[in-house]
Amino acid sequence: MTGPAVAGTSPTAGESTAQARARRALGVENLWPARVIDESGPARLPSRTRLSPGLFRRLADSLRPVVEARPDLREVPPRTVLMIRTDEVGDLMMTLPLLTAMRVAWPQARVTLVTRGLRGQVMRGGSMVDDVVTWPARPWRESLAGQLRCWRFARRLLRRARPAQGRFDLAVLPRRDAEHFGARYVAAAAADRVAAFDPADRLGPIGSIGQERERDLVSDLVCAGEPLTHVLRQGERLAAALGVTITPDAYDAPGLALIGPSDHAAARTLLSPLTAPAPATGPLVAVMLNSPHARGSWPGYAEAVNQVHQRLGIRVVLLGGPDDEQLGDDFIRTLNPSVPIVSAVGRAPLRTTLALLASSDLYLGGIGDAMHLACAVATPCVAVTCHPAGGNPADDDAPNRIGPWSADSRVVGPARPAAGCQDTCVSDVAHCITGVGTALVARTVADVLLGLTSRAVVPTAPQVPQQARHAEQAGFATA
């Protein structure tokens, strides 16, 4: 015979005993969303329902291991740090100054980095992080099932890192704009303290409406500040919130620390055709033809290189991934046969590409991952953009936000938008960028190379435009 049920302890309709226990532990009346009852089958959860971020965080905290004498994480340096960076490799390069500052301030901390796809291979074996884990390739749905997958991935990270206190002391999310779903949930489940930009600031042209509710997953909210600030410099606000300082030398070629002897050897092997049978002379220019967006693909690279070679006698190394082979073949066919060239398209992993860029005198291409790799090793850049002069400074393509940050770099763009566009290029194909003349690009490349030649030492201090009005100081050239 069973006794009377205690109020609040019995499972509600459609709720399991385990769910009832979790609800009681959190002291709430309705932890689980109401189930949809289908008379023709068993009870099921709506696919789009999920826990509120606040309840998810409280549940994660209630299930953490009980450890005696847990220190105040704001008073002592963290021993284990989780950084989640789920966007592109160029964004990862702009996180290097923050990682450098964290390593200097917390030399004993074990740092685990989570990235998507092959982006993390550039960090493996280096001194900035101790472990690299790949973010799941399959996107998680914004549902209760997706939250469960976040929880499972966090447990996988903890089993791999085995932090002494049961969870990471600190999780850092350095992405300023909209995160992939799950990043903050994983951080909240895996770490006692989560530092990230306030999701409520991620609104407008560079954010995503709807993520502001996830601020309950973050313990240390950081104000994003001026939206026109270069992405590279936004890490300084996050560093200040963590109590670390990004010093000027942290911006000085941080990517060189990622290149090992084998990477330099692979780069020398790829460049060897330029030295046989007789060494070719002249500055080495790394050319990247592809662009993250079709509107940023400029058709005039070959003609611009021909003009620069006629004046300075340059050498060329062509960069790109396996999908860029046709672009590379078309470029070589258009190039003057007298230009010494070697193609690394589809042949260079990320760290080898980094070594090739470090060996180059200049990068020529669009604003994208390859450009940020070049900036990370202090190689000057001439970046061709589709963003018109005087365009919207808060746009995703605005050079003041995502342009080159190595010294002596220049940005070349159209003087005015093409027909159908106003303060930014909205086309799905090369449109505004076709207004950039080859003579202007060639002249800009030559000017940068001649400037480097006239000085025996190339300065490497970063030159990052802080606002749109500084774009001209950063070398924005127009026809």
Q: How would you describe this protein?
A:
Keywords: Glycosyltransferase, Transferase. Residues 9-19 have a biased composition (Polar residues). This protein has 479 residues and is α/β, with parallel strands linked by helices. The chain folds into two domains: 80-249, Rossmann fold (3-Layer(aba) Sandwich); 257-478, Glycogen Phosphorylase B (Rossmann fold), CATH 3.40.50.2000. The chain is built from 14 helices and 13 strands. It has helices spanning 17-26, 53-62, 89-93, 96-105, 144-161, 183-190, 231-242, 261-271, 301-312, 325-334, 350-359, 369-376, 399-402, 438-454; strands spanning 80-85, 110-116, 131-135, 170-173, 194-197, 220-222, 284-288, 315-319, 341-343, 362-366, 381-384, 410-413, 476-478. The termini are far apart.
Helix-strand pattern: HHEHHEEHEHEEHHEHEHEHEHEHEHE
Structural class, judged by helices and strands?
A: alpha/beta
Low-confidence runs: 1-9, 26-47, 203-209, 455-474
Question: What is the name of the CATH superfamily of the largest domain?
Answer: Glycogen Phosphorylase B
Biggest sheet, spatial arrangement of strands: 9-8-7-10-11-12-13
Annotation, overall tally of beta strands? 13
Count of discrete alpha- or pi-helical segments spanning 4 or more residues: 14
Overall pLDDT score: 83
The CATH topology of the largest domain comes to Rossmann fold
Distance between the termini: 90 Å
User: What is the gyration radius calculated from CA atoms?
Assistant: 26 Å
Quick one: CATH class of the largest domain? Answer: Alpha Beta
How much helical structure, as a percent, in the residues?
25-40%
Q: How much strand content do the residues show?
A: 5-15%
User: What would you say the CATH architecture of the largest domain is?
Assistant: 3-Layer(aba) Sandwich
The tally of structural domains comes to: 2
Please tell me what the overall shape is: globular
